[in-house]
Structure formats: structure tokens, C-alpha cells
């Protein structure tokens, strides 16, 4: 029965949006959604027993909608698109008191020199914070105390830097309902043709979806061509 499942693996399924899981599988403890095209963490608020969520290698730009996952202990957001502005959404995990491990390897936010101090101070319940392939350091009590002491200064610094980049810190801090694009929505092309006639695109969530949709279109066209070829062969045989 789906309603009694405690573990679900939906990795590499080209999923763009999380749907129905929270309604169908209320007793999930482990959820694997890595290597998809998910642009927003959503529809998981009913998973009160969820302990581990793997959302690595997706298109996520903010941490949100996990506040009601009160049993969450480990969250893997490796290789997503959480940048310096998205770093402010870390605060949404403040009430997940059982959260012990957060993985942010490969996210742009880890390039901010003070990111670790900021996260450690914002989420004092963390025991391990991973931001680089070889960096799975436990959070020591002394590190946490030192980070908490400079948190106001770091918050002010982050806000100043965002303002200088033309980003509204208040909007960045507010965990808004800013889902990526619906599956059937139009996606603006931001790429350009290079001198060899190849499409060059910036690495971003839209690019991953565009590339995926184009690949699926080519596969559909190839399959249709095969079907047509087989039909022609049968017709000639008759």
C-alpha cells in the first residue's frame, strides 16, 4: 500500500515538480528525489515523519516549505542553484529542531567566504555541514558559539552585499511561493549561437529544462521515425 510506504526512490525521473507525495505517502521517512529537474521544494508539508530528504542535483534556488517536516534530520541539497541571496532562506529550517546534517556541496552560496559561519549560527541544531566534496566537518560547540557572536554582523554584511548587487534583502529573506516554471509554460531562450553554429547557454535551471525538453523531443521524433519506417516496410511487404 502506498499509504504505508516509508521509503520512496524517484531519482533520475526528469521530475520538474513535486506533487502528490505528501497526500499519498504520509508515512515516508526516506525520500530520494536526486538528479531531477525540480525547481522548488513544495508539497512535502504533510510528511511529519520524514527524516531524510535527498534533493541533490536539481534546480532548487531556495530552501522552503520544509518547516512542517518536524522529524527531518538530514537534508541533501548538493549541486543545486542556491546562491548568496538564497542563503537567506536557510532560516526557514530554524524550527526543524531535529535537523542534524545539511549538505550544500556545489551550490553558489558556498563561495561566499562567511557562508559556513552564517549557516552554523542560523541553524544551531546542526551537527554536520557539508559544503565541499572533502568537507564534511562536524560543527563543534566552540565554532557554534563563535558564529553566533558574529551573526548580526554577518547578516548586516550579507544584506549590504545583496543591495549592492541590486537584490532586495527583504525579498530574499522572505520564503515566497516562487516556483520555477510550470511544465507546459514557455521558457525564454537565453542562449546564443557560437561560431560553429552550436547553441551556447548559461548554466542555470532554465537551461537544464530546455536541454531536457529538447532531448525528449529528439527521442520522440526518432521513435516516430522508427514507427513510420516499420509501417512502410510492412506496407511494401503486402
From TrEMBL:
Assigned GO CC terms: axoneme
Where it sits in the cell: the answer is:
Cytoplasm, Cytoskeleton, Cilium axoneme
Keyword list (alphabetical) reads:
Cell projection, Cilium, Cytoplasm, Leucine-rich repeat, Repeat
Which Pfam families does this entry report, sorted A to Z?
Answer: LRR_9 (PF14580)
The record's similarity note reads:
Belongs to the tilB family.
SUPFAM superfamilies documented for this protein: L domain-like (SSF52058)
Protein name per UniProt: Uncharacterized protein
Q: Key word Transcription present in the record? A: no
Amino acid at each position: 500500500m502506498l499509504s504505508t510506504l516509508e521509503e520512496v526512490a524517484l531519482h533520475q525521473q526528469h521530475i520538474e515538480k513535486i506533487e502528490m507525495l505528501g497526500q499519498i505517502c504520509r508515512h515516508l521517512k526516506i525520500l530520494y528525489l536526486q538528479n531531477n529537474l525540480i525547481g522548488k521544494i513544495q508539497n512535502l508539508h504533510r510528511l511529519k515523519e520524514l527524516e531524510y530528504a535527498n534533493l541533490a542535483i536539481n534546480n532548487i534556488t531556495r530552501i522552503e516549505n520544509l518547516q512542517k517536516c518536524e522529524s527531518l534530520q538530514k537534508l541533501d541539497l548538493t549541486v543545486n542553484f542556491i546562491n548568496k541571496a538564497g542563503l537567506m532562506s536557510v532560516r526557514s529550517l530554524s524550527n526543524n529542531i531535529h535537523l542534524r546534517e545539511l549538505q550544500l556541496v556545489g551550490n553558489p552560496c558556498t563561495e561566499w567566504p562567511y557562508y559556513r559561519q552564517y549557516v552554523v549560527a542560523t541553524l544551531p541544531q546542526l551537527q554536520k555541514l557539508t559544503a565541499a566534496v572533502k568537507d564534511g566537518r562536524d560543527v563543534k560547540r566552540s565554532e557554534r558559539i563563535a558564529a553566533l557572536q558574529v551573526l548580526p554582523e554577518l547578516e548586516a554584511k550579507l544584506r549590504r552585499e545583496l543591495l549592492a548587487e541590486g537584490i532586495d534583502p527583504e525579498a530574499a529573506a522572505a520564503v515566497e511561493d516562487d516556483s520555477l516554471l510550470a511544465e507546459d509554460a514557455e521558457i525564454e531562450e537565453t542562449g546564443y549561437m557560437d561560431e560553429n553554429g552550436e547553441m551556447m547557454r548559461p548554466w542555470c535551471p532554465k537551461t537544464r529544462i530546455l536541454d531536457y525538453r529538447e532531448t525528449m523531443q529528439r527521442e520522440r521524433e526518432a521513435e516516430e521515425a522508427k514507427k513510420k519506417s516499420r509501417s512502410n516496410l510492412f506496407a511494401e511487404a503486402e
